[in-house]
Amino acid sequence: MSHTWVALVEERPSDATAAAAVEEGGRQVGFLAAWRRRAKPRRGALRADSSLVDPNGAPAWASVVLVPAGVRLPFDDLAVQQARRRVLAEPPPDAVSALLRDASHFDGSITVRRGAGAPMRLRDDPFARIFPARVLEVGPGLLGTTRPAVGPVIERYGSANPWPGARFEGQGQ
Fold it and tell me: Is 148 part of any domain?
């Protein structure tokens, strides 16, 4: 089984499946990179839904929420469940993925928007109510557009797959 890993890194990694320059507040802060492989590519990388990554993806804005070091938040925590409900209830983002280290803890999220007003719309990222978000401008070549997330928001068999995976393992790509 292969996973998709993402990480914010200082230099563009040569071994990444895709990577894009990232700006925050008008200054470059590194690269957002993704790897499609089984083994974790580097410290700090987190698993994401594979449909988030598109090496031909257009530039986008992304709200990136990361759980602070040393904090372990169960994926079924009410705050995480409420954020997922809000994602389902609102107009869908261009892409969204939970970020995971293991099968049972929420370690962050990425919410992607494009178009006029995207940075302003990301200021109300449901996951940013759990932990602070960084709103980043991501260059081309990394972020795709995913199908709207599925619901209802309950845990499902295969929870080792980052939400909003729309299918269970073995149902094709």
Answer: no
